[in-house]
Amino acid sequence: MEIKIIEQHKACIVSVTGKMEAATAPKLEKAISGYVASAQKPIILNFENLNFISSAGLRVVLFSAKQLKTKKQDLLISGLNGSVKNVFELSGFYSIFKIFETIEAALEKIV
């Protein structure tokens, strides 16, 4: 799994590529936790190039959102497709998170 973090004017964009499973999910958790400590902006998780997510990955997404909420910031998700989109739908995460087709659409919704 590869993680790329880009800070923009409105948000911090965290792009994840590859597979997020039990062995790799802690890497994302560590990256996000480091940012949340000084969070001044929402985070957009870009999953456009993520081709697999396990329950361990879902746990990291949920934990990250809770961390951001304590800082009064949001976690937005963009670029879901294929099996990752199916996992989010089946797990009920569509009703929990703000999910967008693209990074640009997510950025437009940030005040």
Write the SSE topology.
Layout: E1 2-7, E2 12-20, H1 25-36, E3 43-53, H2 55-70, E4 75-78, H3 82-91, E5 98-100, H4 103-109
Parallel strand pairs: 2-3, 3-4, 4-5
Antiparallel strand pairs: 1-2
Task: Output the keywords.
41% helix; alpha/beta; 111 residues; 4 helices; 5-stranded mixed sheet; single chain; Transcription Regulator spoIIAA
Task: Explain what the structure shows.
The protein is α/β, with parallel strands linked by helices. The protein has a single domain (2-109), classed as STAS domain (Transcription Regulator spoIIAA), CATH 3.30.750.24. It is built from four helices and five strands, in the order ββαβαβαβα. A five-stranded mixed β-sheet has the order 1-2-3-4-5, with helices on both faces. α1 (25-36) runs parallel beside α2 (55-70).
Q: Radius of gyration, rounded?
A: 12 Å
CATH class: Alpha Beta
- The CATH architecture comes to 2-Layer Sandwich
* Derived structural class: alpha/beta
**Structural domain count:** 1
Number of helices: 4
Instruction: Please identify which CATH superfamily we are dealing with.
Output: STAS domain
Order of helices and strands: EEHEHEHEH
At CATH level 3, the topology is Transcription Regulator spoIIAA
Mean pLDDT: 94
Tell me the overall shape. globular
Helical proportion, percent range: 40-55%
**Quantity of strands, as a count:** 5
Unreliable residue stretches = none
Strand adjacency order, main sheet: 1-2-3-4-5
Biggest β-sheet: count, sense, barrel?
A: 5 strands, mixed
What is the straight-line distance between the termini? Answer: 31 Å
The amount of beta strand, in percent, is 25-35%
